[in-house]
Design a protein that fits this description.
219 residues; 2 domains; 0% strand
Length: 219
Amino acid sequence: MIHRIASARAGFTPADIEFMETLLAKGSTKPFVAKLCEDPESLQTILDLKEIHRGLLEAPVALPVSASFYFYVLVRHAFLDGGIDHVGLADYVAGILVEKLGIRPDPRPGAMPGWVTHAVDFVSVIQSAHGALRFQLQVAAGNQFLILAGLYPGFLEHRAGRYGAPNVEFYETFARNAYRCAADHPGIGSSTRELLGLLSEAFPAARLSLNRISDRNFF
């Protein structure tokens, strides 16, 4: 394996299970919910319930849940609304959000996260890279511009209008191609190849789903 595939569900905590128990069960039925969560298929069924999504969004106080759980539920339900039913795609994209947004932000007004790199910088290093490094850079480019175009489209459009920089559609095309090239790398496993290929195909719908998350929740 030459690349670790991001996974939000791998970061779930006991507090996340307790949150679902609180929403779905009372008193003596709580252990039953906890038992169901031990089975992957049952857990997925529970996570897909509207009550979980609604409870996450409507909680009146700070939630005792992990960032992994929070972003997974948001992404999974946004993807379902956008016609993307593949569980692995939601898990992967939510995992990227956890990694990217967990970096300490720049406190200056209007400042972008420190992980943002221009497309031209990626192009220059990808062209000179080979083997596993080239694959990793292609995945990194796809990940960065999925999140950038998904959560910060206003920033990209403002920069395009004011400075003539590439617009959202450019970054969408760039990221799709990066994922597609990464999926064609000969040294990766079949599951990774399938995931990256599907993400390249579903990128427009995935990006619009992240746009809706951004508009409705926190950006």
